[in-house]
Amino acid sequence: MTGAEKLLHRNQGWVRRMLSVSPSVRADILGGQHPAVFWIGCSDSRVPPELIAGAEPGELFVLRNIGNAAPPEDPSAMAALSYAVETLGVSDIVVCGHSDCGAIKAALSLPAAGPMETWIAGLRAGLGDVSAFLEGASDPVRAAAERNVRTQVSRLAATPSVRARWAAGAVLRLRGWFYDLVDGRLIELFPPLTAPTLPQGLAVTVT
Ligand SMILES: [Zn+2]
User: Fold this and answer.
1) Which of 17, 41, 65, 81 has the fewest Cβ atoms within 10 Å of its own Cβ atom?
2) CATH architecture observed for domain 33-188
3) What is the pLDDT of residues 133-179, one digit of tens each?
């Protein structure tokens, strides 16, 4: 049995679980989605949002890509953001980075070629002058990954979708989280942003 076939087989257990939940919970799910959180995470197979955050179906609206990025020039990210904020009306946007991130390693060493090149170059550009914050860092990949989370949150804060929501007086918190593969903990890197003014440490160049 291949890895993919195992997943199909395991789905039978999920079906049993789905059929065993209360009728009201099932009715909620079938009636449409009302997630409170838009989660932007890395495609890395070791950081599945629902598993590490203990979320149930219906709780997270998710965008995953290489390096948990939300560049304004990426139509996929901007479409997901627009839908999450303007249609679903989420109250929180979480950008979640993680330790040992291959995308960040690539951004620091720039070995990418082919289709990956443009994407990784964008991540690298978002990190800015790496020598400034990597100096003395005990874990350069982690330091850069945390920096990347701050960059993405800063970018989100500058988008028309988020600005319009804030201007309308809606509650919308932008959060930067970090997941440690070693101990499985999620931590919040800085206080949530609730207005256009970026706190110190987030004033990176918005590209
Ligand atoms: Zn990653």
Assistant:
1) 17
2) 3-Layer(aba) Sandwich (3.40)
3) 788 889 999 999 999 999 999 999 999 999 999 999 999 999 999 99
